[in-house]
Design a protein that fits this description.
247 residues, alpha/beta, D-Maltodextrin-Binding Protein, domain 2, six-stranded mixed beta sheet, five-stranded mixed beta sheet, 14 strands, 38% helix, 24% strand
Length: 247
């Protein structure tokens, strides 16, 4: 009987150990897992095998201040919020705009920068202002703010792509009339593709913030404190200026 009891106890310990391994315990983990979509220069993109950019450096600065190791998980953009919501990641940093629908699933920190949605067109396009998008065929990246707002354009046909550069490729090939995307990536895409330009009038203005799980108020408060310190010290602006040249 003693032998059977010992075996049973050993089995129970093993089961409990395996159960514990299946759930991320952020309270005891010194790793800060960041979900992002590395197709969004200059905020996050690949440089060789490394993911770099504004969001990456901000997340690294936060991890350093919290005494944690940053781990970056590259995923589809429309999976970033889900990764945070389900606990696969601690934070979502991917040029995320604070929106009511996203706040149903996650919380957001204070904003760390203001961005804009703009319209990319061909240089000979008759689209001069956002209202000219009515009745046009518009390309957007799936799950982005541009994706959401494009549905409000009268009589427009919206083509959705997994990556922003895929929408831009379709524009250069004449398959669509315009692309709605964030301003800074738009500048990169226009610089890399001859014959494209950005419409002067911005489509929307919006704030970027970091997504955290709704039950992780402690982490959100800590990040807000670090963001405040980064702003006060000028470090945050220094990171942004490294990637975005003032016009």
């Amino acid at each position: 009987m003693k032998k059977k009891s010992f075996v049973l106890a050993a089995v129970m310990v093993a089961v409990l150990a395996l159960t514990g391994c299946g759930k991320k315990d952020s309270s005891s983990d010194d790793t800060l897992v960041m979900a992002t979509n590395a197709e969004f220069p200059p905020y996050e993109y690949y440089e060789g095998q490394d993911i770099v950019g504004i969001d990456v450096e901000i997340a690294q600065a936060i991890a350093d201040e919290l005494g944690m190791t940053l781990k970056i998980e590259d995923t589809a953009f429309d999976s970033v919020i889900t990764s945070v919501q389900t606990g696969k990641a601690d934070i979502g940093v991917a040029g995320l705009t604070v929106r009511a629908d996203r706040l149903e699933n996650v919380d957001f920190t204070d904003s760390y920068t203001t961005a804009a949605q703009v319209i990319i067109i061909k240089e000979d396009s008759d689209i001069l202002i956002p209202d000219d998008l009515e009745g046009k065929k518009i390309g957007v990246q799936l799950g982005t703010t541009g994706d959401i707002y494009a549905d409000d354009i009268s009589d427009a046909t919206v083509e959705r792509y997994n990556k922003g550069f895929e929408a831009v490729q379709s524009l250069t090939q004449g398959k669509i009339d315009a692309v709605i995307i964030d301003r800074e990536p738009a500048k990169v895409f226009v610089s890399e593709n001859e014959g494209l330009k950005i419409v002067d009038e911005e489509f929307t203005l919006e704030d970027y913030a970091i997504a955290v799980a709704k039950d992780n108020t402690e982490l959100k408060d800590k990040i807000n404190q670090v963001l405040s310190e980064l702003k006060d010290s000028g470090k945050l602006q220094e990171i942004i200026d490294k990637y975005i040249v003032a016009e």
